[in-house]
Amino acid sequence: MAYRPRKRASKQNARVHWQDSEEGRPLGFAGYKAGMMHVAYVDESNSPTKGQEVVSSATVLEVPPLTVYGARCYSSKNSSGDILTEDEKILKKAGMKKKPKAPQVSGEDIDDIRLLVYADPSRTSFAKKHIEKMEIGCGGKDPKEKLEFCKGLLGKELKIGEVFKSGDHVDVIAVTKGKGWQGPVKRFGVSVQRRKATNKRRHVGTLGPFRPAYIMYTAPQAGQTGYHKRTEINKMVMKIGDKPEEVNPSCGFPRYGFVKGDYVVLKGSVPGPAKRMVKLRLSVRRPPAKEQPLTFLSNERVVG
Q1: Number of Cβ atoms within 10 Å of the Cβ of 140
Q2: Global pTM?
Q3: Which of 103, 139, 199, 301 is the most buried (most CB within 10 A)?
Q4: CB distance 39 to 265 below 8 Å
Q5: How confident is the model over 129-139, as pLDDT tens digits?
C-alpha cells in the first residue's frame, strides 16, 4: 500500500539494480511469462511440513538464450566505453550499423563491468519480432576478473542452465498487469461505506484536515492502477529444462501458446500478464540453496 508514485512504468524492459557478488558468473537472466501450473514436491525446508509432500502453485517462464554482443565498462558510475564482439552478424542484429572504436581499458581503470545482451522473442511461440537489449550484472572478486570473464563470453549464447540451477533463489523484476483508471476502493483498499451513510458508497469519507488547506498527496484518490514496476524477492527455482512437452498443456497456455525451447519453473506467482518480459536476478537476500525434489508436475490447466 505504500508504493509511490502510482504511475505507469516508463517501459516494460524494467531497470534492475545489480548487487555485487564474488562469484565469477552472470548475475541474471530474462524470459517471458507463459502461464501457471501446480507442482508437488518434498519439502526440505525447516517448516512444520518438512519431509512431507507439498502442493504449490508455480509459474512457467520461457527463457530463450541471450546473445552476448558486448560488455559495458563503468568508471565512477559513468560509462567509459563498450567492448563489442567481432561477429558482424550479431552486431547487425543488435542494431550496430558501425562498430565504434573499442576503448583501451584495464582492470585498474574501471569500477564495474556489465554484459550487453539481447533476448530474441522470435524464438518463442508468440508473435514478437524485435530483439530486446539489456544489461546483465557480472560477478567477480575484482574488476580485472570481471573484465576477463566478460571478454570470454563475447559473441556467445548464454543459456539459463549456465546461470541458475534448481534450488536457487532469484529476485523477479517485472511490470504488473495494467488495470487502467480505478477508484480508491480498488486502488487503496478503503472500505465501502454503508448504504445510509451518504449518497455515495465507493468513495473516501474524508480527504484530510482543514489545515493545511489543500488535499495532501497521501489522501487515497482515484488514479492509475497496475502497470507498475515491481520486484519480488526469493522465488525458488523448482525446475530448469529444455523439453517443453514436460510443461506444455495439451491446448497450450492461455493467451500465450506453447513453450518451444528452454523453460524455468518458479515457485509461486510472478508479476505481469502472459508474454510479459520478466527479469531474474540472483537473490540479494538469498537463503542457502536447497533443491526441493519434484514428485509431480502438472501440464494440464485446472479449470474452476
Answers
A1: 21
A2: 0.90
A3: 139
A4: yes
A5: 899 999 999 99
